[in-house]
């Protein structure tokens, strides 16, 4: 076995490992001042410079310890499940920062190499294991200064960075390709619905939503203030639950039953179409029979069709069609909170054949949905595989112990 390469504390390889400005800053903001980076300017993929604050030149000059240079590394000081890191680019120019850890490597340590090393799985595990605090967990600069890292030659650092740059470039292309396939799979079912409903719309019956629902379907909003979770309480469906096509009791918020008093109009029977009318309007899902007796919150309207006019499943597919979605989008208003009024919802125009024809078409619709969902799952799996970052390659001559410090998957 080759001898272990020397390891050194990070502080010995850097000019500075310190915390940016801590304290009030808003009174120093201005429109044409010096760029001022904060925690929200560090994302999963590095610095996010599309939107940052600016401070007066005088305030910037007074904060000498947090003034930034090209090649500095900025780390999120407050940490949740990942320690985010980014390199200050040349184009940012003169800049400053607040409440972030600033690392300035010496000449013998490439910023790109240190950036990759900090983002490696084993480095993340080590640093996250050193968090302190209760309300907010932070990684102290003392931990980073004492962190032992391999002392790798500059040439070897360049080799490793080149390997990883190439790997991430390929990763980006593969991810974009997988995401494009996923979007195509999602659009495929929409295209099938569009062809069915638009092709036949002129020869089918036409009616507003309010004229196609059953007598006991009032098209009403749900519970306005559901209150806190209550163990064993009444299940309620919220807009955030509508990410799947079938809604069961699993994972639903449960509330005190009396909170539903006065909301009998939205009490579920167990096979309603649940339509989102606040937030991402137009999203729909189907309630399973086990939700009988449950309810919904303000952002959802339960829909039950008159079975003599429209089969429940046929209505569900019509809600998902472009024909209905465009009508919902046209009636949706608001910027901060997008929503559609009940009066506009009731006027949505549906086209549908006789019930017997609906019965004939339903198996085709259900089969198309199953095929598209299977295709979506295949592409989701591909996307999940592609977004895994490559491990840092071992530096030449490193033994297993030092290799792990670099973030190898071995161990």
TrEMBL record:
<dbReference type="InterPro" id="IPR000055">
    <property type="entry name" value="Restrct_endonuc_typeI_TRD"/>
</dbReference>
<dbReference type="Pfam" id="PF01420">
    <property type="entry name" value="Methylase_S"/>
</dbReference>
<dbReference type="InterPro" id="IPR044946">
    <property type="entry name" value="Restrct_endonuc_typeI_TRD_sf"/>
</dbReference>
<keyword id="KW-0680">Restriction system</keyword>
<protein>
    <recommendedName>
        <fullName>Type I restriction modification DNA specificity domain-containing protein</fullName>
    </recommendedName>
</protein>
<comment type="similarity">
    <text>Belongs to the type-I restriction system S methylase family.</text>
</comment>
<dbReference type="InterPro" id="IPR052021">
    <property type="entry name" value="Type-I_RS_S_subunit"/>
</dbReference>
<feature type="domain" description="Type I restriction modification DNA specificity">
    <location>
        <begin position="30"/>
        <end position="174"/>
    </location>
</feature>
<keyword id="KW-0238">DNA-binding</keyword>
